[in-house]
Amino acid sequence: MKSEQVMYWVLIAIPVVFIIAFMVYPAVLSVSYSFSHPEGTAIPNTLAYKQNFADPEFSKAIGYNLLLVAATIPFELLTGLFMALVLSKQFIGRGLLRAIMILPITIPEVVFLVSMKTMFGEKGVVNSMLFNLGLPYNNLWLVYSPVNFIIIVLVEIWRTTPICALLILAGIQSIPAQVYESASIDRATVWMKFRHITLPLLKPAIVATILLRGIDAFKIFATPYVLSPAIPTMTGYAYNTYYLRFAMNPVGLARAAVSADILALFIIVFSYAFVRYTSR
Fold first, then answer.
1. CATH code of the domain containing 191
2. CA distance readout (Å), 229 to 38, 90, 113, 145
3. Per-position DSSP letters for 223-242, written without gaps between them
4. Residue 24: inside a domain
5. How many domains does the chain fold into?
């Protein structure tokens, strides 16, 4: 066998082994755990599913998870699109502005979230500013709904919008300048260029941005867990069920696996439906 053929099969085998080891095998294992019997018998059953769906906290986690996705993705997309359009222009200080824009991405997630939690604390920056302005302030920003949920949404938008902006900016920079020059010759306005050139040619980048951010938003864990554990998500429910409520026993493992499997199902349905809709 020629060396080129060996390299060909090696390059194929590496990602295949990686996918099987770190995606397929854990997924199969999770499904098997979700149908496992709490007493450890080999007979599969749906007891963990029944227990989860009978738990009000699980229903609340599903609701908050879907609400977080619906509340963050549109704002991230629109804000990211605006930032990308601004940064695609030539002006003094553009490099500095780009560096400032990606700052939330460069900070470790937990460090960023702890900083945000401190800002909204009793003696945090937010209360200090309100006190100095003579406005009413709140010592429990991250305790009561819906204020804590709104803060989580705002922090998540702030943290992840730069990712959307970078993805869309890459799409803008791939559009040939000759297209805009031809439109200028035809006396197209700025809005006409945006509506009939930029947006249609940005569709692949926008689709990829929504898909990637949507999948990531479904898996949200750290932001609500650090800022306000009172806001449950499906990943947080799985963690609390396995480690805190049932102390890593078979019941907790089965119910955590159910939460993970339902979350994976949501992601698969969302991805399939979105790709089908955008490919029409």
1. 1.10.3720.10
2. 27, 44, 13, 12
3. HHHHH-TTS--HHHHHHIII
4. no
5. 1
Which amino acid belongs to residue 78?
Answer: L
DSSP 8-state secondary structure symbol assigned to residue 55: -
What CA–CA distance (Å, rounded) separates 223 from 232?
11
pLDDT per position as a tens digit, 199-215:
999 999 999 999 999 99
Query: How many whole angstroms separate alpha carbon 51 and alpha carbon 139?
Result: 36
Q: Reduce the DSSP state of residue 91 to 3 states and report it.
A: coil
> How many whole angstroms separate alpha carbon 280 and alpha carbon 275?
9
The model's pTM is 0.86
One-letter amino acid for residue 76 of the chain: E
| DSSP state, residue 185 | H
Q: How far is CA 144 from CA 138, 164, 209, 228, in A?
A: 10, 30, 32, 9
Owning domain of residue 178: 56-278
pLDDT tens for each residue of 62-118: 999 999 999 999 999 999 999 999 988 888 888 888 888 888 888 888 898 998 888
The answer to whether 155 and 116 are in contact (CB under 8 A) is yes
What is the helix (H) or strand (E) element at residue 148, kind and residue range?
Answer: helix 147-173
Burial of 90 (0-12, 13-18, 19+ CB in 10 A): exposed
Q: Round to whole Å and give the CA distance between 247 and 243.
A: 5
Distance CA 171, CA 212 (A): 15
User: Exposure of 219 by Cβ count < 10 A (0-12 exposed, 13-18 middle, 19+ buried)?
Assistant: middle
Instruction: Write down the pLDDT at residue 33.
Output: 87
Asked if residues 220 and 210 have their Cβ atoms less than 8 Å apart, the reply is no
